Structure to design on (409 residues):
């Protein structure tokens, strides 16, 4: 499999690397320490970068059927850019104003009119954010447990419920003119088929941010609790069809399919963090006069050399799985299994690598003098959101063994 990208794509990756070095690393510690403050200079600067990326992305959309332009390189390029940005700072990368996961859901199942209304002019004005809210106080992994309700009242939907741990929720609804895609049920007794995504725009009466979480890692990213009390939105803000049908790809299933593109992206962000940690360890060792002897016979290698080489191999394996999942998506192939493999593998690898890097540098690794201890905290989220390690392993097992979600859960 060839993962080389066009010259234009490589330029964009180099620009992401420059943004990571010049705009993210210098403020990384500050916005980790000052959780809940907003780096507006960074937002404004990245807003311009995102605009440019958006325009450029349109030229990377050649479909698999388009023989002249060849397969798209869009997802692979996004992953490579995100590795660079997360190398700069994972929390700040998650804070970059853009349509986010909510935008991906609209792209996946929105009507042309919805795409135009919510995404068409997204980049016209001041920085804004999109987000997606599935998780509720009583569930995370088991998304069929959605208890937030949506009731049709004339030409509006009335939403009631609580959503927790919504990335960029406060920035989307309070700090900008953005939107959140909220999952709600039309009829709890009908299970998954009745769960539909709804676009809730900023400024909707009855929508409040009741809390913003204090977190272990990715502290620059806002993670909000959203309260919906008789929140009224227009009838045509539902994503997919209003009818409750057991089969079909609109609504719930369609939005679930957005994870096929976003799971490799989560993997790529973790890989960026772990790469940062590994590079720092190697630089620190080099300053102490310790170079890794790649050419030495394994029996002659020190434990330290073996550990570093082993981590490099794990990181490269995670990266290759991630590239494969992206490449399949860009070719228009179904990649659900590979997307979960990429995320599960990267989650385990980057958690291990960042912890091991802290361990190798001892007290220096553990101190806040370096960013290493922060990267260890930032890496763990790779294993939690957008399907935990265990949930992605379940998806892989079901896919290999041919079981349905009710047969293997
Ligand atoms: C920083 C952060 C940002 C987030 N952003 C968003 C967001 O933007 N939007 C959103 O909707 N949600 C978001 N989430 C929520 C996240 O997706 C959930 O935390 C995640 O899905 C896990 O759900 P849970 O926390 O309820 O854990 P649970 O589902 O209760 O799981 C607890 C543990 O049990 C394991 N487990 C659960 N079921 C099984 C099973 N069947 N077999 C084996 N093991 C199992 C899990 O792997 C986990 O280890 C975010 C979370 C965090 C921490």
């Amino acid at each position: 499999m060839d993962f080389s990208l066009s010259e234009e794509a490589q330029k964009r990756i180099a620009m992401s690397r420059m943004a990571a070095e010049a705009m993210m690393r210098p403020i990384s510690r500050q916005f980790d320490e000052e959780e809940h403050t907003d780096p507006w200079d960074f937002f404004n600067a990245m807003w311009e970068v995102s605009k440019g990326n958006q325009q450029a992305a349109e030229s990377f959309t050649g479909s698999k059927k388009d023989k002249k332009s060849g397969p798209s390189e869009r997802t692979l390029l996004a992953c490579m850019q995100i590795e660079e940005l997360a190398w700069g700072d994972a929390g700040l990368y998650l804070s970059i104003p853009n349509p986010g996961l909510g935008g991906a859901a609209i792209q996946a199942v929105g009507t042309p009119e919805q795409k135009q209304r919510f995404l068409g002019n997204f980049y016209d004005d001041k920085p804004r954010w999109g987000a997606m809210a599935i998780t509720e106080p009583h569930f995370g992994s088991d998304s069929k447990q959605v208890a937030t309700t949506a009731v049709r009242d004339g030409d509006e939907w009335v939403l009631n419920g609580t959503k927790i741990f919504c990335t960029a929720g406060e920035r989307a609804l309070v700090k900008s003119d953005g939107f959140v895609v909220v999952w709600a049920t039309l009829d709890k007794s009908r299970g998954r088929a009745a769960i539909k995504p709804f676009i809730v725009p900023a400024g909707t009466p009855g929508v409040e941010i009741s809390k913003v979480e204090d977190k272990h890692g990715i502290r620059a990213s806002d993670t909000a609790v959203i309260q919906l009390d008789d929140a009224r939105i227009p009838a045509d803000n539902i994503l997919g069809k209003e009818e409750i049908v057991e089969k079909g790809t609109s609504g719930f299933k369609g939005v679930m399919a957005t994870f096929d593109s976003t799971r490799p992206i989560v993997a790529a962000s973790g890989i960026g963090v772990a790469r940062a940690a590994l590079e720092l360890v190697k630089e620190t060792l080099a300053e102490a006069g310790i170079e890794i002897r790649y050419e030495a016979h394994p029996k002659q290698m020190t434990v330290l050399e073996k550990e570093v080489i082993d981590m490099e191999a794990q990181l490269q394996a995670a990266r290759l799985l991630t590239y494969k999942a992206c490449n399949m998506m860009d070719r228009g192939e179904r990649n659900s299994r590979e997307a979960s493999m990429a995320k599960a593998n990267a989650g385990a690898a980057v958690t291990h690598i960042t912890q091991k890097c802290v361990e190798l540098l001892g007290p220096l690794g553990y101190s806040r003098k370096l960013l290493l201890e922060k990267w260890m905290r930032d890496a763990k989220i790779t294993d939690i959101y957008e399907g935990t390690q265990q949930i992605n392993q379940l998806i892989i097992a079901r896919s290999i063994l041919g079981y349905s979600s009710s047969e293997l859960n």
In short: Residues 255-401 form a domain with the Butyryl-CoA Dehydrogenase, subunit A; domain 3 fold (CATH 1.20.140.10). Residues 61-67 have pLDDT under 50 and may be disordered.
